[in-house]
């Protein structure tokens, strides 16, 4: 990756390119997987992330020579056009591509030793937008003593760490003088999402998570204060709850959004504009808010957070469908420039349904349906991999 990033605050951007050394035999290769890009970045908890992008799903193995991480990918040729990008502050000092028969060996030379990566430290992301398949590896420096202890204890150190409580920020949208959408029968978005938010907090607390709500009553909050709340409370995941409206009263179903500077479709663009306009209710300070947003974007660039948010959003959409919650027609996960998502905390904006649809308005008021929605979100949080 091309930035230094932390969920605890903005740490600036720094990009470096370095040369790739290759040893390639003179053989003819059949159609095969292709190396698209390599990049590194700093993740929360002082972790280094190595991302290897390939044209098709990679078949790979990992090995750990002294102060090296070696990724061996089958059916792939070295690619001299790929120049890896290395962010400052990572463990990776150098990377080489080495051809070994029909395997490409990507050798990352490390500044400090690491332990063998566990399953929770490895992600294989599906193609998304401009990205192909991405093998994502996260690791931290480890002393020789800790490596030996991890081997003899079967990973007990990591299991102990996994017991730490992850922090979930629940953000019921709108509130106070901002009612949000209002259904034909008078149901207000701000009331629905607060009710769902309270139930969600109770369920997540019971499941062992540490949760905070941006608002616990009928209070108006600026969007920037919601994002800052997530930063201040050192959130690991940010969930913003909303209910939608559509000019067509036949449209219904949930939808999930992540942050992107370019909206995935016209409807997503209009929705973001509508949600972002909530701050204009209190005109004072809006110009300053816009300036803060621009500063946040210039210092962050959101790449790592976007990948983690995308992972959560896709899992959340699956959880909703598994719980038999009807989806809005179209993509399961959409993207738009929502101001409330502009932070270093991964997250998503969930539109629970459409208050503009009379049938769904009744459902959104129903305690039973709210419980169904909460169960789906709890499931998505439990399934989310917080370790990457």
Describe this entry's structure for a reader.
- There is one protein chain.
- The protein has 388 residues and is of the alpha/beta class.
- Helix 7 (303-322) crosses helix 9 (367-383).
- It has helices at residues 144-153, 156-162, 189-206, 223-232, 266-276, 286-300, 303-322, 358-365, 367-383; strands spanning 5-6, 9-10, 15-17, 22-23, 35-43, 47-54, 60-63, 68-74, 85-87, 92-100, 103-110, 122-125, 133-139, 167-172, 210-213, 237-244, 255-259, 333-336, 347-354.
- It has 9 helices and 19 strands.
- The longest helix is centred in the last third of the chain and has 20 residues, at 303-322.
- A 6-stranded mixed β-sheet has the order 15-14-16-19-17-18, with helices on both faces. A 5-stranded mixed β-sheet has the order 4-10-11-8-7, with no helix packed on it. It has a 4-stranded antiparallel β-sheet with strand order 5-6-13-12, with no helix packed on it.
- It has 2 domains: 5-156, Immunoglobulin-like; 167-383, 3-Layer(aba) Sandwich (Aminopeptidase), CATH 3.40.630.
